Amino acid sequence: MSEIIYSLSVERIRWVAWLIFSSFVFTLSLTYLLPVSPIVKEFYIYIYGIGSALPLITILLCYHPSTKNKEYVKLLILYSATLPLLIEGMMTTPLSGGFFLWACTMAGLGAILLLDPAKMWNIHFLVGGHIIMAMVGILMHPFLSYLPANEMSHGIWRFAPITLMVGGGIYLAYFQYRKIPMQLRKLYGELQNLAAEQRRLLLESIEKREAAEKKHEELEAAYKELSRLQEEERKRMRKENFIIQYEALMRDSYHEELYTFARKLLEQLSMDLPVIGGLFYKREKEAWLAYRSYGFPTHEGKYVKGGLPEVAASLCRPYMIIPPPIGTLVPRSTFSVSYGRALLYLPLYSEATKETLAVVELLLAEKVEEETLSLLAQILPRIGTYLWAKQSQLV
């Protein structure tokens, strides 16, 4: 918008400058064509011949990038058009008010055509200055006038080019202001096309974003599903490896004594769990015998009647106490004293006899995860059934 107005303003300034220069050339030509006295001819040669350098300079300024739209250039153009008229009005006799009227009219028209309405000082300077100069010219006319009436000052051929120039200025104003709506309509159409293109691009970007978000959601769902399957596979593999280890332990120890199997079982549990120490209890009539130990060698051979082993035996599942009861003993060594964080009881329940034949008591350094407890719950009946098969050694 601003670029269009600027380009039209520069174009209008150049048109006015060329129009004024053409009027100077035309008036100078009339001096040689019309029958005027030598003194009149000399006067017009000075005014419009030598004076044509001023509008020519303004034309050059209109094409220079740094001055082509400056306010002082516009004022210089308008003063170059009206000053000769004011000088003619003061120098010719009898007094012709047309010169002063045309000068003030051209100043007002030039202010409308060229000057920036936002800068009122230049309009006041131009119009007010011409009014003052016209009044001064009328007052000074009796003292300065020396040219007699002639074809140039009072003839139709003199006022015809002035009328044409003013008419050309009016036409130029009409043409330029008519051109602005056309340019604005063109710009409006381009803006509409640009807006439509932006809407199209926006809709495309929205569609692409929605498609990308949908694809992202699908990838997230696929990733979650893959993670779930990997987690299931990990649990399955851990379960299989866990069961295989204890089945291999039972198979390798089948022909060995229970005492050896109990030791190997405690050692295997210490590798799978954070075990500080433990005891392998087997049922002896109404009590539980500490048959084998891990970290508590002095407790082997002692009997426990009732208590926590009996509670665990009645539950038939892993039983964990967090924290251990006050007074729970811990294994002592030369280097440190361990402090248990949980007690875990593993009842070895036989599926064949529906009885708990043994209980493993473990003092743990930390809590055992639910997944590990679930694996232990699956292996305990198998170990209990294995012990029932070796029942002759338990008597």
Task: Describe the structure concisely.
This protein has twelve helices and six strands. With 395 residues, it is α+β, with helices and mostly antiparallel strands. The chain folds into two domains: 2-194; 255-394, 2-Layer Sandwich (Beta-Lactamase).
List the topology elements:
Elements: H1 2-33, H2 38-49, H3 53-63, H4 71-91, H5 97-113, H6 120-144, H7 151-154, H8 156-252, H9 258-272, E1 275-284, E2 287-294, E3 303-304, H10 307-315, E4 319-321, E5 342-350, E6 355-364, H11 370-389, H12 391-394
Antiparallel strand pairs: 1-2, 1-6, 2-3, 4-5, 5-6
Helix pairs in contact: 1-2, 1-3, 1-4, 1-8, 3-4, 4-5, 4-6, 5-6, 5-8, 8-11
How does this structure look, described?
The protein has helices at residues 2-33, 38-49, 53-63, 71-91, 97-113, 120-144, 151-154, 156-252, 258-272, 307-315, 370-389, 391-394, and strands at residues 275-284, 287-294, 303-304, 319-321, 342-350, 355-364. It is α+β, with helices and mostly antiparallel strands. It has a six-stranded antiparallel β-sheet. β5 and β6 form a beta hairpin. The radius of gyration is 58 Å and the shape is rod-shaped.
